Amino acid sequence: MVTAELAATLPAVVFVLAVLLNAVVLGIDQVRCVDAARAAARSAARGDSAGQVQVIGARAAPDGATLEVSDSGGSVTVRVSSPVPGPFGWLAGGHHLGADVTAAREQP
């Protein structure tokens, strides 16, 4: 009797655990997007070259992320965008993970 009940509920338990694991990975990648945007904005505000800003941002960003840097005179804005990871990424409805960070340019 217990074996039949376990056999009936085991697929549901495995599915719930897989969704929870995917949610953890999603949270980690969101934090990595924020960290990458902060590091790249800090680098751009210091006056580093565009290539170096891209390298610093890409090092901290999740796989497949894009990094956009825009300069508006006295400040720099960095936008990091990444696709939703994992096999349940389609549950996000086409949304992407991302972060925007603006930093004031440092004076030499």
Protein architecture, described:
- It is a single chain.
- The chain is an alpha+beta fold.
- The protein has one domain: Pantoate--beta-alanine Ligase, Chain: A,domain 2 (2-Layer Sandwich), CATH 3.30.1300.
- The protein contains 2 helices and 3 strands.
- It has a 3-stranded antiparallel β-sheet.
- Strand 1 and strand 2 form a beta hairpin.
- The radius of gyration is 20 Å and the shape is rod-shaped.
- The N and C termini lie far apart (76 Å).
- 20% of the residues are buried.
- The mean pLDDT is 89.
| CATH architecture descriptor text | 2-Layer Sandwich
Secondary structure tally: strands? 3
The run of helices and strands is: HHEEE
Mean pLDDT: 89
Radius of gyration, in Å, reads 20 Å
**Numbering strands along the chain, what is their spatial order in the largest sheet?**
1-2-3
> Under CATH, the topology is which?
Pantoate--beta-alanine Ligase, Chain: A,domain 2
Briefly, what CATH class? Alpha Beta
Beta-strand residue fraction: 15-25%
Number of helical stretches of at least 4 residues:
2
The percentage helix is 40-55%
Structural class assignment: alpha+beta
How many distinct domains?
A: 1
Major β-sheet profile:
3 strands, antiparallel
What form results from the Cα inertia axes?
rod-shaped
Low-confidence parts lasting 5 or more residues at pLDDT below 50? none
Terminal Cα span: 76 Å
